[in-house]
């Protein structure tokens, strides 16, 4: 991923959409790490995701984009202007059009409903439209489903999206790094997402490297 710096002084923007699957912690941690890596972050949160976040965490994020920006900035210690939030029907957002500023997109977590909509090009809300744009413009699109067991419908949609160039990255953390807590399991998945985005990080060492070694892709 290019490390170009925008006129705001941030690295290339990354779009993060949080939908109503379990695992909101993955998306929130991803935003935090992207902010720390000095990337501009464009955020969308589905209606169902607000309920999941309130259920799974001690936070209740506001729905209005301007208030959501403030809440996420406080949560991640973001610089002014580093986080932008868009409403579910903000069709003037840059992610809604191929002529908008290019941006990699991560749907984390990705509900099976959103997975289905993206696979079929439904585009009923901004998250679905932004993913559709990413596909048609051949931009990087990463979906992080968190569902089990998976039906044939889910698997067929994942296969269709993979064939279209999307990356299907299930929220299935490994244990070979001997996690000491839930945070280590969350970071395992976030590290894999950053690897796909080609963003340097130190959440986990490379396979076979020492704990203090350079982090990156999994080679096993």
UniProtKB/TrEMBL annotation:
Residues annotated for dimethylallyl phosphate binding in this entry: 176, 192
Binding site for FMN: 20-22, 46, 111-114, 146
Organism: Billgrantia montanilacus
Pfam families cross-referenced by the UniProt entry: Flavoprotein
GO molecular function: carboxy-lyase activity; flavin prenyltransferase activity
Name of this protein: Flavin prenyltransferase UbiX
Flavoprotein listed as a keyword: yes
Role of this protein: Flavin prenyltransferase that catalyzes the synthesis of the prenylated FMN cofactor (prenyl-FMN) for 4-hydroxy-3-polyprenylbenzoic acid decarboxylase UbiD. The prenyltransferase is metal-independent and links a dimethylallyl moiety from dimethylallyl monophosphate (DMAP) to the flavin N5 and C6 atoms of FMN.
Keyword terms: Flavoprotein, FMN, Prenyltransferase, Transferase
Similarity comment: family membership: Belongs to the UbiX/PAD1 family.
Keyword Flavoprotein belongs to the record: yes
Record-linked InterPro entries: Flavin_trans-like (IPR036551), Flavoprotein (IPR003382), UbiX-like (IPR004507)
Record gene name: ubiX
